Amino acid sequence: MNKLEYLKHFITNEGYDSKGSVQYLITIQFEDPDSSELFKLEPYGVYIEKGYHWTLIDNEPFRVEGGNVNEPLFYMDELLELPGDFHPVLKGKPVKTTFGLFLFNIILIWEPFKGTVEYVNREFTKGFFEDLFREIMVDNPKEGETIPQGKASVDECLMFTHNCNFLEGLGTHYIKPGGLDALTVDPEVIALRDRLFKEHAHELNDPVVFTTIVDQVVALDMKKMMEGPSKKFFINKKFIDNSRKRMFIAFGIEPNDTGDGWVALTQSLDEGWDTNHLAAYINTAVAGSYSRSMATGEGGSQVKETLRLIGRAVVSMTTPDCGSPSTETVIIDKTNQKYWVGIYAVINKVVTLITKENVGGLVGKPTQVRVTNRCILVDGEYCQTCCGLGLGAYGERLSSEIVLIPTRMMLQRMKAAHTAGSKTSILDLDIALK
User: Fold this and answer.
1) DSSP code string of 256-306
2) What are the residue ranges spanned by the domains of the chain?
3) Residues 329-347: tens digit of each pLDDT
4) Most buried residue among 93, 157, 235, 387 by CB atoms closer than 10 A?
């Protein structure tokens, strides 16, 4: 059988129920007792013997053609062209996808929802699933009731999170943790840095000039990284524009030892400290440590103060609508219209729920919406109408949602210290002054 035939056999027989079986698809095996012999014990597993991939079907060995024993049988980004009858998750529609997307659709989409959700042939993101659950999740049906068509119960959505936990840790098998390109810097990047530093040697202590040069060099370094074998390791931009910048390009521009100007530290950490500017390095290290501890302490204090203020906030179970005459005027935009679905608006003096069907008619128009800060209930209560469908369903757990606000405040204070550095921002005055 070829690789695709084997994959269909594996998926049809739910070989993915075993995490070990999933691992052998995406890892490099060795023909020894500690590798292939162990994989042979996994249900529907692939193992290596006599220089080929094999699988057992009814205890009979079948050779799997099309694989290289020196590589994983499947790469997560390996392109597949699947016919519509390959699996029910496709609903009869042929698809060009990747192995990783297909595997994740089976485990995270098909297993919990059994066809309620269409095949997701795109990157799995937090925002996508937040929108999905907001649309499909309903309460568990009571005895004698059924789940409405196109909806999913709370238990089914919880199965999704359980399956996410099942997949946890697989990234260590298929994300390249590094390589020569991640541990070094391309000579072309250093050449650009040296050329620009030489051309602007007389003005490097100008923070605008210095950071503009570094931004150009960092952009080239990122381009090289995204073209190299370690590109999947850099899942966050800050690893390149902050960590690699200091490590391989230039330490940065810092206040001088007298505090009345700037000094350009053009050597990277890889090249070592410039002994002519030891005070600048040491002052920066001390200031960074102090700032980090102060930011953490101040952020924590603000969070606790906010928590004390909101600790008793609840959604009223007795007053669904406080009747507040006060609203907030907003302009709903095409790019954010989905966020207003579930909010109550006052349209033609009538309190109206914004839905997927009517939100399009409100785009670009001043809309009067009911908001929590205009609710007239007292003693920490808020009505369901001012909260909207989302917050209004929280009941006594409303404060747990509001906690997200001080949590983000805390994160911002932490980020300011952990990724501190100098950077140039360009302001277009023509746009800013409109």
Assistant:
1) -TTSSSEEEE-S-TTT---GGGHHHHHHHHHHHHHHHHHHHHHHHHHHHHH
2) 3-171, 180-272, 314-403
3) 999 998 888 889 999 999 9
4) 387
